Amino acid sequence: MPNSSGATEVAPRRGPPADMPGQDLPGTPLRADRLLQALSKHGVDFVVVGGVAGLAHGSAYPTYDLDVVYARDRGNLERMSAALRELDVTLRGAPSDLPFQLDTQTLANGSNFTFDSPHGSFDILGHADGMDSYEEVRECAVVATIEDVEVRVASLNHLIAMKRAANRPKDQLMVEEYLSLDDQQREG
Fold this sequence. Notes:
Elements: E1 8-10, H1 32-41, E2 46-49, H2 50-56, E3 65-70, H3 74-87, E4 90-91, H4 104-109, E5 112-116, E6 121-125, H5 134-140, E7 142-146, E8 149-153, H6 156-166, H7 169-187
């Protein structure tokens, strides 16, 4: 729902998973506010995508992680690495003895990273299937307030394209809902 500044306010849903195939629950509950606050504090150029973005548009599907796409210029990689260090992230699913240096060069050498943090699962995507460019996603993004943090959220059209590209059973269900939400927004 829009607030007085015109931004949409949303809080990620926590609770039992919806009747959605392939929905996995992480070990640490999502605290999107902490993750978003760190990114904002460090001036990271990013757009929220995935389930949290869907919720900002009115989706009924719960989410248990935060996904963002981010600008890949050197300055933003420096800001992102500082935010990630502050968040004390670790690579999800990696052995604890795997050497991993969280710095600008590591981010420059990679693109998409999946992390665990004390605030929940957090994925940063330099590229997501279904998106042409970060700049286009950013340009079409809407401003929303997620757990008291004002951020850019991917448009429904970009979320639909990303979900279609992922094409998992849960993504197919979400595409149908996002199409319905898009129709409602056009009519409203």
